[in-house]
Amino acid sequence: MPSADILSDLVSLTERALEETVEQVGYQLALRYGVQIRNYLESPCLLDTHIAQLAEPLTTHLQEDITRGTISQPWLYTMLYLLVDVRQLSALTCYFPHNVIHLEPCIHLLAQWYGWDAEKLSITSLDKNNPGADLSEIATPSFNDVYDEKDVSSNAKQHVVYVLFASLSILVGVPFDIHLVDSKGDLPDTVVALAKRAFENMGKEYIIAAEMLARFVTRPDLRDTLLPSILQEFNLKLKEYSSEIAQKKDLVVPVIRRGKFTAINQTPAYLITLSYIVRFSERDHIKTLGDSVLESPEQILSALLKDDSREIRRLCIVLSTRLASMYLPTQLFKWREQLLNTDAGELLLYHDKLLELEGFYVPTSFDYFIDSLLVGISDDDTGIRLSSARGLALVVGRLPFLFADEVIVEILSYFSPAETPEMWHGANMALGELIRHGYLPPSRIPEVFDVTKKSLQFERKKGAWSIVKDSACFISWALARSYASSVQLRDLCSELASELLVVACFDREINIRRSAAAAFQELAGRVGDPYVPSAVLSSALVDYFSLGARKISYMEIAPRIAALDKYYAEKFVDAICNRYLTHWDETTRNYAARSLPSLIQALGEAEGKWNCALKTLGFLVDCLKGTSCEDDWVSYCGFILGIASSLTLLADAEDSYTPEINNLILQLSNSQSELFTKGKRFKDNADANNNIISATALLIKAFANTNPRITADTILRKHTYSVYLLYLLSVLEHSITTTIDSMSIAMFDTSNTNDVILALRALADYYTLCMQAPSSAYLLSNEFLKGCLEDTDFRSPLAYLTGLGLLPSSFRREETNYILHAILTELNKGVSPSGYVMRLYILSTVESTLLALDSVTDEQRQSFLKIINVCLHDYSSNQRGDVGSLVRLKSFRILRNVLRENGHVTAFLSDAYINAIVELLGSRIDIMRIDALISFYEDSKDGIISIADINLSHLEWYMQDYTAEKNLVFQMKEQARQDRQQREEIDTNNYLYDLHKRESRDDDPLDDDATINLLTLVPKLAYTAFNVLVVLFIPLEEYTLKAAAALCYSFGAMSETTSTYLIGFLSEIFDKSRKNNLLTGSTSNRTRISDDLKSKIISLGSVVKIAVYDTISRTVQQCNLADAYSINVTDASIRLLNFLLVNHVAIESDAKLFDLLGSLITLSKSTSKFPMLQVVTACLAGAGVVAKQNGYIKTYERAIKGLILFLGHKISKLRDAACDGLLEIMLITSPPDSPELKQVVETLTSYDWSILTTPEINCARSALCDVLGIVPPPEKK
Question: Quick one: 802 and 754 in the same domain?
Fold first, then answer.
């Protein structure tokens, strides 16, 4: 809503613009004025409080310019144009000049500025550079180069013309004979010529010019002389254009661009002028003109309504409406009077209807006008359809009953399945407008209801089908508004209400759901009970906001409405089964199936839940039998989904229903036997294939979730169970690969469990439940299950290994060695990046096997440990990125889960779990560090793992933020749960929908099922992992090397913020002069740090330094240049070494540092990776400086020799780097006045090492070695 400050600013800008004389500043003010006044486009009436202050100064200036006959301060015309554009001319008419003395000056001023005298005109303020040019050809004034960004100055000339035309359109209405004010005798011709000039340009001013011309020629003193010639000329132009269209040659297309040689279509100007002429003419006079207003309407209108220009078609509709209304009486016919005052079904007797026709006459052309309006309601453009609908309502309301009824019948005939959605929409809008104005005879309400019902059920996969439903809701709203007391409507009210509620709850489009709800609320409010069942309560449930979420509409609102009345429940179930389960949209089908059980349950409160469920299931099974999955796979999937969801209601069925349920399962199995046999049906239709597989898997899962006491005899027959199992195994690989390919790596952990896997798990759990029964009649041998696996034609081991973990727990427990042998056989083939999916599902099989075990042998322990270790150290990567991180993270989470769930059997995995924690605490991926940190904290606190030398209070110190946030979220969830419980209690008593719940979403952190993103709640947890790794693990002798290796690895490629933190963190470790802000952990709930933790932090530097140097030495020595992970770790270690040497952190051993440099030089001879060699060169330079400072003679000499070796490297940048390193060592470690230093510097700087040839390099290195007094290296060949 615009504020009062904007109005004040507009007034202030107007005052400043009046006083301004500088052209550029004036248009700057106009620019600001336009920006401010556009705030009122949606509610222009708010300007009325200050309209006098805004308009009077501008119109006064306009009047002065008209009086003087010159244009001054043209930016004021732009401001007046903007004001008229926003508030409309009708609200400002009283402020414009309207004195007769201004008429002729205004015409002459417009003629000078815009007409044929423009060549003689030179206005300095607007055209300083072209005083003698034709201003009609000047696109913009000279200041356009600076001020054209807001379309102000670029259209300045048009704004002036528009304002002058607007003023003239008011002045031509002065009540004096035009000849009395015409001093030259050519005033009429001048006005007509000005309007035609505007038509030639077809700019912004042509509409106001047409209005001005129409007002002028319809004056009493000109209508008999000037008007006929204008009509004749315009009709001739329209006939010519229509002929061109009919002959399909030289079509003139309307254009916006202006130019001297551009053909501009003037047809819209002619049509709008004719329309204005009809509007402004006196009724008696226009009737005398008759067909001369539009000659040959059958030719002109039929051609123009096919034109490509939307504006031409729209103006044809407007003109047809006005011409049709011209011949109709203003007095209401008897049937309209009775319709307004009675609720009778039959308004008039047939004799009375005939009497209405006496004295009623319309010309033949009237039929063409009605036909044009009927054609317009099928136009492709929505605006034209709406204009046609309003025009028909206006005409029908003034026709005799028989003629009006004939038009209504014609509109009703347009609702054919063969017609386009645009035709349905236009016909609906026409009926809606007729009903809204009360022009529909009550006897036609049943027919209108039939077409409305069809429109509410209108569905097509392509096209603008939603507009049909929207217009049907408009009809329903109009019926409730205008015919609330009609007997015919009340008889149909309950059915109409149920149809609206079905659309409001289940439609795919949010706008349609809300439109249907608004129509229902209107119907419920105006008609009410008992014609609309539970009107008030239902209206409260279909709330505007709650319908915004489709999930809430299906799963919460619809069941609650169904519970209010049995009639609604029946309609909802019928709509779901017949329309929405077979909907083309997959999401709609899924929601429909999920909502069906709750709707059946609501219906079953009256008839019995199980009876209703069996009845619905029987209907769906019959539908499924009659549907071919090849011909209509959408319906086939929908019926299967509906059956699967409805079967959940039979989970607690009584034993008396056993025959019916088993018979139902057998029917379904038999009807799908062919599908089960073939597995996949649609190789050429991926969408159909995926949906069929998913739906069938859900059906099998529903079978498995039934009560084993009732269905075990049917499902566990070997043939039936094997059919289900073989089908799921046959499609398992396809479902896995489809799932993996359609999601990102980050989503794998939450999205990899697809419907087929869930169905296999449910089938296995079903068998386990049956085995717990006293009878062993359901026993299936392990050989039988192995046979099912072997009988399945797997294309790769992926599905086979995954299927092993999805068989019953008894099989996994008894055939552990068989499963481990199959997994190890596959892993022994090698770890490749392309096999990461295989390893992920192997881990799932390992997890399910470990959870099923009661005991484990030593051999099995070794096998499990081998599999886990392989996966924990999977660092493979491909074009998708670090895919090995998925395997590592899943391995870690499996270790944690099996230790928690089956710890007495899997205790042998504790050491592997702790080692994995240490390794992941130094991961380069934030979420992995956080996962490891939280798992370590929670499991240590719960006693799942125990490390004797780690003080739990130290760990709790670093986890203060996490604990605080966790407690806060827990309190919020508890409070939210209590609030919702209280609201639900109130809601239960009052039967009103909980409007607060409408705002909840799937990711609501207060929802019980929501996953709390601790990375968002505690962003510093990713950094806290480094604290725990360094402070708690590196000092422990058992984990020192592993923790140091993890720290070295983390120094590789990371995010900029993490790298900055890690550098500052390490600096605090080795520099005791710095404050330990990062080492102690920055917490928001700071308490005093314990003394023992503080002392541990203070003494940390030497321990970490020794561990890190040992790790770096071992990593460089063991580097395998054929392994990408080994190269990655080595690169990170060398970078960490360079950081330590730059910061003068050196190990206190000349021999160890000497050996480390030797390993680096050896490594540099074996690799050609420039980034790594560049860091090695920097390390040699840093080691030379550190060695000189600490007196490490051997290390110093090796650093010098290593750099001299790099001076002969084939990469020129490395030679430059080696030269810089030598200079750094000499300048830092030697006395400034040392002769040796001067000779070395002179020698190094006398050569351009980057461009030396091989002999020159050998010579230069020999000269340098002579100066340094060392043996030169072998000559480079």
Answer: no
Does residue 836 share a domain with residue 764?
A: no
Closest CA to 1048 of 1140, 1123, 985, 966: 1140
Per residue in 922-956, pLDDT (tens digit) is 998 888 888 899 999 999 999 999 888 888 888 88
Number of H helices, E strands in the chain: 63, 0
Q: Check whether 856 has a pLDDT greater than 60.
A: yes
- φ, ψ of residue 206 in degrees (nearest 5): -70, -30
Contact 126, 141 (CB under 8 A): yes
* CA–CA distance, 318 with 279 (Å, rounded to integer): 11
772/815 same-domain check: no
Residue 698, domain extent = 660-795
**Backbone dihedral region of 262: left (phi > 0), alpha (psi from -120 to 50 degrees) or beta?**
beta
Structure tokens given for 858: 């030593």
Residue 878 β-bridge partners: 881
Distance set, CA 1115 to CA 479, 873, 1041, 1074, 1134 (Å): 83, 16, 11, 30, 9
Closest CA to 313 of 401, 245, 220: 245
Judgement on whether residues 755 and 737 belong to the same structural domain of the protein = yes
Summarised one tens digit per residue, pLDDT across range 589-644 is 999 999 999 999 888 775 678 888 889 988 998 898 888 887 888 998 999 999 99
Structural element, H or E, at residue 468: helix 466-482
What are the backbone dihedrals phi and psi of residue 2, each rounded to the nearest 5 degrees, phi first? -60, 145
Q: How confident is the model at residue 479 (pLDDT cuts 50, 70, 90)?
A: very high
Tell me: do 206 and 269 sit in the same domain: no
Q: What does the block give as tokens for 783? A: 């050989």
Helix (H) or strand (E) holding 128: none
Phi, psi of 384 (to 5 degrees): -70, -40
Q: What is the pLDDT of residues 73-115, one digit of tens each?
A: 989 999 999 999 999 998 999 999 989 899 989 988 888 876 5
**Integer Rg of the chain from CA:** 44
Query: Is 1005 in contact with 969 (CB distance < 8 Å)?
Result: yes
First vs last C-alpha separation in the chain: 82
Q: Return d(Cα 1179, Cα 1146) in angstroms, integer.
A: 12
Q: Distance between CA atoms of 701 and 1040, rounded to whole angstroms?
A: 50
Integer CA distances (angstroms), 310 to 132, 280, 317, 644, in order: 39, 25, 11, 51
**Contact predicate 61/73, CB 8 Å:** yes
Sign of the C-alpha dihedral computed for residues 930, 936, 938 and 941 taken in this order: negative
Q: Is the peptide bond before 175 cis (omega within 30 degrees of 0)?
A: no
Same domain, 197 and 71: yes
Length of the chain: 1277
- Residue 271, judged by CB atoms within 10 A of its CB (0-12, 13-18, 19+), counts as buried
CA distance 123 to 109: 12
Q: What is the mean pLDDT of the chain?
A: 82
- 3-state DSSP call for residue 545? coil
How many domains does the chain divide into? 5
pTM over 0.85: no
Last residue of a domain, one of 761, 795, 829: 795
- Asked if residue 185 and residue 111 are part of one domain, the reply reads yes
Angle between helices 1040-1050 and 1124-1142 (to 10 degrees): 90
Find residue 881's DSSP bridge partners.
878
Residues 897, 814 within the same domain: yes
- Residue 483 within any structural domain of the chain: no
Instruction: Print the SS3 string covering 163-230.
Output: HHHHHHHHHCCCCCCHHHCCCCCCHHHHHHHHHHHHHHHCCCCHHHHHHHHHHHHCCCCCCCCHHHHH
Question: Does residue 1197 form part of some domain?
Answer: yes
Among 899, 883, 998, CA closest to 939: 899
**Going by C-beta distance under 8 Å and a sequence separation of 6 or more, which residues neighbour residue 108?**
69, 190
Q: Is there a domain that residue 268 lies in?
A: yes
